Amino acid sequence: MTDDPNIRELADIPAVEVITRCAVMLMSATAEKLGLSDDDPDDSPNRDLDEARRLITALAGLVTASAEYLGPHAGPVRDGLKTLQLAFREASAAPDEPGHGPGEKYTGPVW
């Protein structure tokens, strides 16, 4: 246990909060790797589509596996995932065929 009242013990945090926080972290990291935090994503020094693909796939697996537990958070998390999948497709010089993009083996094709 910690003496700092601002730090919560992991055992005290509900699973849905842990899952949602993890999803938000994956979304934020993906947005960075897609260059979405820069004025011109195409010229972003942070853009790394290989890394973004990995993050999106991990996010899709998490969202798919935990959707039934997310309650009212499921819709917004799924929407965020789809937005990132579409941004990845748009950023790709040679976009994957629908159903073969990052995370689509878990989510199905994204249009």
- Which stretches of 5+ consecutive residues score pLDDT under 50? none
The helix tally amounts to: 4
**Span between termini:** 48 Å
| Helical content band | 40-55%
Structural category: mainly alpha
Provide the gyration radius in Å.
16 Å
- Average pLDDT over all residues: 93
What letter string, H or E per element, gives the SSE order? HHHH
Number of domains: 1
- Global shape: globular
Biggest sheet statistics:
none
Q: Beta-sheet strand percentage?
A: under 5%
Compute the number of strand runs. Answer: 0
Overall description:
- With 111 residues, the chain is mainly alpha-helical.
- It has one domain.
- Helix content is 53%, strand content 0%.
- The chain contains 4 helices and no strands.
- The relative contact order is 0.15.
- The mean pLDDT is 93.
Could you name the key traits of this structure?
4 helices
Structure described in brief:
53% of the residues lie in helices and 0% in strands. The chain is built from four helices and no strands.
Task: Provide the fold topology.
Elements: H1 15-33, H2 49-66, H3 74-91, H4 104-107
